[in-house]
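$ run holo --ligand "calcium ion" --emit tokens
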Amino acid sequence: RNGLLTIPVVVHVVLNPADPAQNVSDAQIQSQIDVLNEDFRADNPDVAGVPPVWTDRVADCNIEFRLASQDPNGSPTDGITRTPSTVPFFTTELDDVKSSATGGADPWPSDDYLNMWVCNDLRDGIGRVILGYAQFPGGPPTTDGVVIASFCFGKGGTAQAPFDLGRTATHEIGHWLDLRHIWGDDRGSCSGSDMVDDTPNQADATFNSPAFPQISCNNGPDGNMFMNYMDYTDDAAMFMFTKGQSRRIDACLEGERASFLT
Ligand code: ARG
Ligand code: ZN
Ligand code: CA
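-- output --
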């Protein structure tokens, strides 16, 4: 894939208007788009923190994001929908934020738009609070996109440390473009892979903000690439995609998500 690709985004804000503390402003939404435009171009200032041994692996993914200017009917839009909802929390299991029938908002056609839902409280199948989730390429169009909880969406407003730099959306859009977790989702066995050749084999997820290096799976001396967006470190501790990940994203854009190339 050659040149810069622009992906139109629609942000579906699904919140309870009776609770003003939940409000996500247009400025907070734009701050999230701005973060994506740094992170997917390696234009983020904190990329300077990549350990010198890995600076040559840093990728400019050549993708930019902009709020849609045309809605599915061809009418002008700001790329933001706002749906008042009294659903106390949404779940990954029900995917209920993605449908007006269940108190959420219906997607716009998933071959033309990246649908991004924002809600106040998001839970997994056993009720634990989560930051966000994504649908990998190849799934049903009616549920395609990413969901981000408002406490880790964009900068300012409802965003809360240590997830207040917009990196949850960077991570989830990585999944939406077919990237796997950097440790290969094998819960510490070293047998799993993210199917990317320039990310070190890594045993398990990394949390918080560790010091370099962190060794596992005989991957010394440099160890785990925990500063990669596809790990679980804090927002301030993740700041790179690799060239191998960028190639995997390109394969997705030339394959299952080819509708965005035209
Ligand atoms: N737990 C989420 C997932 O697996 C996202 C974690 C994002 N991490 C962050 N520092 N924002 O998709
Ligand atoms: Zn993830
Ligand atoms: Ca592993």
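-- notes --
Residues 130-133, 152, 163, 167-168, 171-172, 232-235, 238 surround arginine (ligand 1) (CB under 6 Å).
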